[in-house]
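Researcher: Here's the sequence for the chain we discussed earlier.
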Amino acid sequence: MKHDLTHLPRAGDAVAGRPGTSSEALEANFSDLHPPLTQRQALIESQRCLYCYDAPCIEACPSDIDIPRFIRQISEQNIDGAAHTILEQNILGGSCARVCPTEILCEQRCVRNHDAECQPVLIGLLQRYATDHARFDGHPFQRAADSGYQVAVVGAGPAGLACAHRLAMLGHRVTVFEAEAKPGGLNEYGIARYKMTDDFARKEVEFLLEIGGIEMRYGQRLGHDLSLAQLHSDYDSVFLGLGLGASRQLGLTGEDAPGLAAAVDYIKQLRQAEDLVDLPLARRCVVIGAGNTAIDMATQMARLGADEVTLVYRRGVEAMSATGHEQEIAKVNGVRMLTWATPREVLLDAEGRVSGMRFERTHATEGQLQGTGETFEVEADAVFKAIGQGFDDDSLNDPAASELARDGERIRVDDAFRTSLPRVYAGGDCVAPGQDLTVQAVQHGKLAAHAIHQDLLAKQEAA
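Model: Thanks. This is the structure I predict for it:
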């Protein structure tokens, strides 16, 4: 009964004398994490920017957005111009404005941090303001003349969508193959609900597809319905924008017991729920991990109404991959954080369901993590794993895919995102360079599209 949470009460149920929670109350708990700026706030904030000529914020932006330019355009009340400046470099600029860790990227490098104000310009919120309020007459970008080339894009996540859009702009015909029933990838299925509200991921994809020249095919999974060998044969080029969908295992007995689940699976269910009251809710839950997925999972359980949420990590706070800002979100929502502890045993009740977890305290000696031998237990109705993800083993199992050079489990690419197979490119979470960020994936897709375009032109000239 792997990942079975059906024995848990629903989020809207009355439990132990406590009244149930209404749909309206739960939706209020999942409203915007950071409310958008008003027109007046955006105007005032944009005028705090110094519009630096050699702007360090641009250097810190993975997608190369001309930040001072779009902020100046907002200050001049040229909102369409500001949005165009953003979208010409990052077609998913609206979602990135919501989920990008600006506190460790552009805003961290803002020169305002070093003056008397000690407060960076709110670049992320200004980017959201511009992309939310633009009113284009049709799609802001036009397709070039049809090149006659056809490109397959595998994966409709940020990398694949950015690649498809840029290829369409350059005049190529693109077919996007997506395993799920909806496009968007992480934006649709994996981001905390309070970060991506009002069905924004779907609306952004609809806007992106207005460019034309892009065909979407859903329910098409590499290694199941598709093979890389066939795509390589049928298309002039192939871009792999594969997500990391397989959750890593703890390697403990009882890992398949009811009440132990992958955090990404629950977040996906939460994101797609029409009514939050129907979600299974553990009144006492443990989240194992230290990244943004772990934070998102823990915070959302708290907002759903869990009484106790404990996040456990095997090292110290300073080693957590979640940013300090994300950690603070969890703490504000009542999440308890336990560090220097590693899971050792899944505790089960008489019916074989999760009743808690036994941990061993750890310490580091010369950087090497070691157990101390001291253990403790945390009672829980459910335990959620957020310890990282890897490839679905079947995704790259055909003869052509098995030839791809790898760095560990990820696909090796050169500076132009070319793989070791001719005419096959890759970007996003499935490749080694960079961080697993939405904005980084968008940049990979965009740059790969330009490499594909140049290689197709070179092929045409050679012929």
